[in-house]
Amino acid sequence: MVADGASGAAVASAGLGDGALRSLFEDGYVILPGIVSQAMRNRALRAINASLGSEGMNKDGLPGFRARTFTPEICASAAIMDLLTASPLWQAAQSAIGVGQVRGPSEGQVALRFPSADPGGPAVPHIDGISTPGNGVPPGTLYHFTALAAVFLSDVDDDDRGNFTVWPGSHRVVEAHFRRHGPAAMVDRFPDLSLGAPRMIRARAGDGLLAHYALAHGIAPNHGPHVRYAAFFRLTHTQHEAHGSRPLTDLWLEWPGVRRVLQRPLPP
Question: Which one has a higher pLDDT value, 106 or 60?
């Protein structure tokens, strides 16, 4: 869903509008059009491509790059981190999670999806923080957080272009599973849940995304001619550790902006 059709400038001055916050509640995510400037995107793309050109990619390291991040040597640089902390995306996150209550990561994830000769299958749903080979999460643990933020650095204007893929409303299904079975239910794998139909996100370079941690998501294959460039950031509420596992069974515990808008009546 689009954030009230708002531009990045509007989000910068006012945070997320009621429509965007309601979309977060209903769908588990919201798209923020044009939230990151071209100059900021170009700086990030230059850093990524310079790294690829100078450091290259060891073929044996590709599974780890896909699971964690490409160009790890620049992930904490200003070129990447400014996409979050120096753009209106930061104000958008604070309007949902609380001003002064958002703790950003020390580095971002550079997520590239290359065209492949192998058509590949459809996106497979998951939530972050479940241990898989190469992703850095210790086996037997579930690394959870509050929100996933993203900046699209290239156009994704068709399906099967390495699209970030979501299952709208799946955050409620995941919450119900946690309530029935506890956090240990997803330590080893994402269960087979009835999530509904997936949606491949089409976006323009400069669009942002804010999603609930519990939203099931995946990556579509890239059948196009171009690399898909994006950066992802994992955000936590400043009280997340103190809350323990409660955010898994109380979805909006750490989202006061969403709770506030739900208390207001819908406009006529």
Answer: 106
- Give 166's strand partners: 199, 217
What's phi and psi for 18, nearest 5 deg?
Answer: -60, -40
Residue with tokens 């509008």: 17
Residues in the chain: 268
In this prediction the pTM is 0.92
Give the model's pLDDT for residue 12. Answer: 40
CA distance 60 to 62: 6
DSSP assignment letter at 267:
P
Rounded Cα gap, residues 95 and 67, in angstroms: 30
Residue indicated by tokens 């998501």:
217
Q: Which residues pair with 211 in a beta bridge?
A: 29, 148
Return the bridge partners of 164, or none: 219
Q: State the sign of the Cα–Cα–Cα–Cα dihedral 253, 36, 202, 234.
A: negative
pLDDT in tens, 130-147: 988 888 888 888 999 999
**Residue given tokens 């955050």 in the structure block:** 171
Long-range contacts of 66-71 (CB under 8 A, 24+ apart): 66/134, 67/132, 67/133, 67/134, 67/135, 67/136, 68/109, 68/134, 68/135, 68/136, 69/107, 69/108, 69/109, 69/110, 69/111, 70/110, 70/111, 70/112, 71/47, 71/110
The CB density around residue 176, as the number of other CB atoms within 10 Å, is 12
The answer to whether residues 119 and 223 touch, using CB atoms and an 8 Å cutoff, is: yes
Query: Whose CA is closest to 120, among 163, 155, 170, 58?
Result: 163
